[in-house]
Amino acid sequence: MKFICEKEKLLLGLNSVTRSSIGRTTTPILEGIHLQLKNKKLTLTTNDLEVGMEYRIEDVDIRDEGEAVVDSRMFSEIIRKLPNKEIIVSLNENNILLIECEGSKYKLSTMNANEFTLLPNISVDKSISIPQKVLKDMIKRTAFAVSTDENRPIFTGCLFDVTGSLLNIVAVDGFRLAQRVAPVFTEQKEFKAIVPGKYLSEVAKNLLDVDELVKIGISKNQALFEINDCKIVTRLLEGDFLDYGNVIPKEKETRIKIDKSNLQDAIERAAIFSISSSEKEKKYPIKIYINVDCIVVSCTSQAGDAKEEVAVEMEGKELEIGFNPKYLLDALKAIEDDEVYLDFGSNISPCVIRSTAEDKYTYMVLPVRLKE
Amino acid sequence: MKFICEKEKLLLGLNSVTRSSIGRTTTPILEGIHLQLKNKKLTLTTNDLEVGMEYRIEDVDIRDEGEAVVDSRMFSEIIRKLPNKEIIVSLNENNILLIECEGSKYKLSTMNANEFTLLPNISVDKSISIPQKVLKDMIKRTAFAVSTDENRPIFTGCLFDVTGSLLNIVAVDGFRLAQRVAPVFTEQKEFKAIVPGKYLSEVAKNLLDVDELVKIGISKNQALFEINDCKIVTRLLEGDFLDYGNVIPKEKETRIKIDKSNLQDAIERAAIFSISSSEKEKKYPIKIYINVDCIVVSCTSQAGDAKEEVAVEMEGKELEIGFNPKYLLDALKAIEDDEVYLDFGSNISPCVIRSTAEDKYTYMVLPVRLKE
Predict the structure, then answer these.
(1) Under an 8 Å CB criterion, which residues of B touch A?
(2) Distance from A84 to chain B by nearest Cα, in Å?
(3) Residues A258 and A234 in one domain
(4) Beta-carbon contacts of residue A114 (< 8 Å; ≥ 6 apart)
(5) Do A303 and B265 touch (CB under 8 A)?
(6) What does the pLDDT look like over A287-303, one tens digit per residue?
């Protein structure tokens, strides 16, 4: 096995298939990267059996076909630190991988390539296509809201819900729900799949702000994302997701329209008092009092208190309601519009945040009961 | 007590007197910030009795003189997050500090100002003056090498050694020594003081790249740094420092002249193998083989090995010697010159790194014995 490749080109592929945070396993082969030279292509693959990623590099100078598996962290780190030149990679007779570049010469011990599991051939029975930039945006605005509680694994995933020619992506963690909808190309009328939230960040990392399509194929228990030269396969979560359509309140007693940045800044400042430095465990809620033409965001702790007034347009009843500030801030950070709607029922029913510019994003958050 | 001040101006002062990493104490007053309005000035002071910092703001709109102490982290965080406008700070009849800015109103509980220790009046008996940018550079190139071993507290400090009109700053940790010399203005012929290394970073934070002078005053057990509107007082460490002049070898058997970046890059790459991922505890040394016109930097671990060739100009004998790569890299990062000298005796005597452009910086590092 031997090839010559520009450092930058190789690094692009390595960044694509190596996970930002590799969960250390006790099985080295799961932390390996598989290099394959075949049919005029270099194919890089990583696969820890939860998520597998493959990247093809077409214009590589291939001297000898073959394959090898080496530690992916070590290999990436060496390539990343080499100068911006041509790199020669080859396997010697002792099954040692040689990496050469100008005055640098590296030897890496290899693993048994037969033990490496390449990406499976997935028998896709449902599929959709969606522009890269749209999917990227959908993941950004929903995946942060998945649950981290492994006791209810189903909610550590994002629901992909296809109805007609619309895709809804939904994440929910018991305190809040994020939902984003967009049109997709599909031949199936209706189907659902639940993708582990943490692997969607690997997908998002490979998406660019372009109109080019991503193809998402769904089999019985796996999803396949095809993005240009990259393929990502993840397992699906099995079980029944929340019936989100019936959970989001349709009625409202109070609606406010508010400048998003002003609200975000006010909550961020008031939240200084939410986490008490002297009582490490305790978190104080923030209180929002909704008035005719302004809201008052406040927070009181042992250390003192914060009071913020922000101008609003209000319809409906006055209301006083409490929240965990983090859950409001997460949503406001994910919204790019200048203004947002906040819809309320009572002080014990959820608040729904919607962007004013488009009806594509819905974020629901449960209130916190305030002590009198 | 009441004043009005632009946010940016107040924040500048807060950044100057608040420590980047506040060691949490069980005595809240040591984590407080003292605000004093007196003689047309606002003076901000923090003091944990190890290091005290004071910053004066002259053009503040003072409505009522007075003083107050509040939690410095909370106060700084509120000011930092407020909009770029005028801020009104006042003390109410219940000893609550009010902070007002547009629609924001904050209340902070105060501490007893009588319990706060203001900066002491130091009876300076020796003093030097030095341009800010020179002191900043001297600290940057030496303070990283202080020891973190509290069992030998003297070496957690930097020696300030004044001889004639020269200041030497020296740090040493048992494995390496960094020394930087520069001319200073002083009326004393000769004196020494040892300043805790960790507080020098607070000093450096306040230094700009300008020719304006810093005044350093030394009393029996304290040092006072006066930088424009800022004063920093730290205690001194007591005891005998290493006789550094006699430790640095004057003779050499081998000298190389080498491109600094090339050497740094080569060591950084080879060091990938120095820390083994499979054997967490183990660190492998790097080996440097010095030849007539090139050196070979190598490192071998269980995972594989690295070999880097770098061109040099060499005088003297060939040599093979081992090092902890971190200690070489720390020095190379601190040097700004294009080329450096490395002087060697034998493979068990220290290596001395000197910049080629000027004779102001010396870094000595002990070798590691290589296994055959």
Answers:
(1) 28, 71, 73-74, 77-78, 81-83, 96-97, 103-109, 265-266, 268-269, 272, 277-278, 302-310
(2) 12
(3) no
(4) none
(5) no
(6) 999 999 999 999 999 88
Whether A54 is covered by a domain: the verdict is yes
Residue of A nearest to B28 (CA): A278
Q: Quick one: tokens of B284?
A: 């492998």
The minimal CB distance from B306 to the residues A28, A106, A304 is found for: A106
Band of pLDDT at residue A278, cut at 50, 70 and 90: low
Q: Find all residues with CB under 8 Å of B293, minimum gap 6, and list them.
A: B311, B312, B313, B314
Among A82, A272, A310, select the one facing B77 at the smallest CB separation.
Answer: A272
Q: Are A109 and B272 within 8 A, CB to CB?
A: no
ipTM, two decimals, is 0.87
A256 and A349 co-located in one domain: yes
Distance in angstroms (rounded) separating the CA atoms of residues B126 and B184: 13
* Strands ordered across the beta sheet of A86-91: A61-64, A2-6, A86-91, A96-101, A104-109, B304-311, B294-301, B286-290, B319-323
What is the overall mean pLDDT for chain A? 93
Q: Which of A77, A268, A307 sits opposite B81 (nearest CB)?
A: A268
User: Which of B68, B87, B115 corresponds to the end of one domain?
Assistant: B115
Its domain, for residue B42, covers 2-115
Give tens-digit pLDDT for B261-316: 999 999 999 999 987 655 566 689 999 999 999 999 999 998 899 999 999 999 99
